[in-house]
Structures are given as structure tokens and as C-alpha cells.
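Progress note, sequence design subtask.
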């Protein structure tokens, strides 16, 4: 389904997270009005997904939420709405309002469920509260819950991220849950930049981040999560705003390559392996990064490791 993204950068966020600058990430600095959203949504003839990203949608006054939702609902029949918001602004009252409109997916920017990490990032809630809010959506009037997680945050490590995923898996059960995984980047002008410059925060490198996110992808796909995105969308303003951190336009591809390597090694630690031809570029792309990881982890000679993969399909 075609998407109509509507960016509301840092709109009504209850507090400033230390790493965040949505203007740098999205390249948008203004908010479109509900009327502008209505004009764009009603231009289309095919159903579309109207997506409100970049801010805390449900922290806006109820009346303004209603105006945006009603504008999005003017899209052709069969369209739906996706929104991202802050965990603290999910209540039964809010879910009841959203249920009056074709809102299908509600993504919560939880970042982490680790209290120490949340505190250092000034997120303003605990892991327990974030889980309660996701649970409220999952058990509410039919919306698909989503969690936006981050890697490389201050005080966070891979174990912390894997614990987050296990908690989400327990909450999800056999139900649906969507997932996005973003790396933490040091952006100019953010409080995190200060920590980085004073050496109180050292971001992980690209390889480490790709492996970190790759482990999460592997776990999430084995446990029935719907992985919507890994890595940030590359934009000109992001390129200009990054001071440090694992900034790589194909970080998501590298993470998926690492997840594939893990899956091959789980099947057989030393090969031979059978893999789908359509996934070949995952191992062969970006200077054969995936193949090199396969060689590194299997301990096999580089040529031998490549020869042991048979491509099918
Ligand atoms: S990370 Fe999310 S909640 Fe925090 S300031 Fe940015 S947009 Fe707002």
C-alpha cells in the first residue's frame, strides 16, 4: 500500500531525549497543518497508509489529534493510519479516540526497556511503564502495537537489548508486534554531543552496531516480530548533522547480513549451507561484508567458506 508520510518533528514531546534532533533526522522543520494533510490525503485514488512520524502524536491536545485523524481519514476508502508516539501519552481515553478512525498501527518510541539506559537518555519513564503501555495497545481495540528500539545508547549493551526483546516477546505471545531498530547517532547540538565531546560517551562502530542489530534481527524474526526497519533513512540533513556514531547508509543491510550469517551457522557451524539466491546480495554486498563475517565466525578459510554456500531458487 502506498504511504503518505507526515512528519511532525518533536511535536508535543513531553521531554527532550538527549540524543534526539528530529529536524536533523527527517529534514523537516515545519509541521503541516491538518488542512494540508487533508489536501494531500484526498488527492489519491488508491487506498494509502497515512503515517504520522517524528513526534509524539498522542501527546497533542485531543482536539488537534482529532483534526489530524479526520484529515487522514479523508484518504480513499480502504486507507489506514499509522502513528508513532511517546509511551507516556497512551491511555484508554486516547485509544478510544483513535478507535474512531482507521488507525491500524501505533508505534511507541520506547528506545530501551532498561531503566538505567532510559534514565541516562532522559526518556522520562521506566521500562515497566513502557511495557504496560504496549500491553494496553495490544489488548485494546484492535491496533497493532509497534516498538521502536535503539542500539548503542549510553549505558546500553547487546545483553540489555536482547533482554528488551525477550520482554517484548513474552508480552507479544502469539500476537502481532512490529519492530524498528535504530542506531544511536551523535547529532550536532544535542546533549549527547556534549557527552561525546567530554568522552563520557563512546559510540559503537559500524561493524559492532551491525552485529548488535543483526543479533536482534535474528532473534526477532525467529520469534514472529514484524521487522519494519533497521537503520535510519539517509537524508541530506542527517548527513550534515552527524558528529559521530555508526553512520552508514546501509546499516540495515549489514544487520540483515549478520542475521543471515547467524542463521546459517545455527544450521551448521562449519557448512555446507543452502541459501536462497535472492539473499545472495546480503552476503556479497558492501565489499562481501556478510561473507567475511561468515568466514570469521566459522573459522573457515575465506574461499572454502564461500564455496560451501549453495544458492537455490
Ligand atoms: S526521541 Fe521521540 S520523544 Fe524523544 S525528543 Fe525525539 S521525538 Fe521526542
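Output:
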Amino acid at each position: 500500500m502506498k504511504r503518505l508520510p507526515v512528519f511532525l518533528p518533536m511535536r508535543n514531546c513531553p521531554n527532550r531525549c538527549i540524543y534526539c534532533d528530529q529536524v536533523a533526522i527527517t529534514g523537516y522543520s515545519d509541521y503541516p497543518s491538518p488542512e494540508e494533510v487533508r489536501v494531500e490525503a484526498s488527492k489519491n485514488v488508491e487506498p494509502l497508509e497515512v503515517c504520522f512520524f517524528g513526534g509524539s502524536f498522542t501527546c497533542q491536545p485531543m482536539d488537534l489529534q482529532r483534526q489530524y485523524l479526520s484529515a487522514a481519514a479523508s484518504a480513499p476508502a480502504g486507507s489506514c493510519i499509522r502513528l508513532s508516539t511517546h509511551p507516556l501519552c497512551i491511555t484508554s481515553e486516547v485509544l478510544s479516540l483513535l478507535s474512531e478512525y482507521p488507525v491500524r498501527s501505533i508505534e511507541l518510541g520506547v528506545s530501551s526497556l532498561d531503566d538505567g539506559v532510559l534514565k541516562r537518555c532522559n526518556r522520562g519513564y521506566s521500562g515497566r511503564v513502557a511495557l504496560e503501555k504496549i500491553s494496553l495497545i495490544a489488548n485494546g481495540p484492535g491496533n497493532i502495537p509497534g516498538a521502536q528500539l535503539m542500539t548503542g545508547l549510553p549505558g546500553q549493551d547487546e545483553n540489555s537489548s536482547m533482554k528488551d526483546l525477550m520482554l517484548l516477546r513474552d508480552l507479544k505471545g502469539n500476537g502481532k508486534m512490529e519492530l524498528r531498530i535504530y542506531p544511536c547517532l551523535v547529532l550536532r547540538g544535542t546533549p549527547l554531543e556534549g557527552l561525546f565531546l567530554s568522552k563520557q560517551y563512546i559510540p559503537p562502530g559500524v561493524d559492532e552496531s551491525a552485529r548488535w542489530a543483526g543479533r536482534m534481527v535474528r532473534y526477532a524474526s525467529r520469534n514472529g516480530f514484524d521487522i519494519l526497519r533497521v537503520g535510519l533513512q539517509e537524508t541530506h540533513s542527517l548527513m550534515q548533522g552527524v558528529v559521530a556514531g555508526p553512520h552508514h547508509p546501509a546499516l540495515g543491510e549489514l544487520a540483515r547480513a549478520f542475521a543471515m550469517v547467524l542463521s546459517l551457522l545455527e544450521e551448521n557451524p562449519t557448512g555446507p549451507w543452502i541459501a536462497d539466491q535472492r539473499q545472495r546480495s546480503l552476503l556479497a554486498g558492501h565489499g562481501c561484508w556478510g561473507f567475511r563475517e561468515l568466514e570469521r565466525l566459522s573459522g573457515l578459510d575465506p574461499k572454502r567458506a564461500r564455496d560451501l554456500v549453495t544458492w537455490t531458487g
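The CA atoms of residues 43 and 140 lie 32 Å apart. Work on this subtask will continue into the next period as scheduled.
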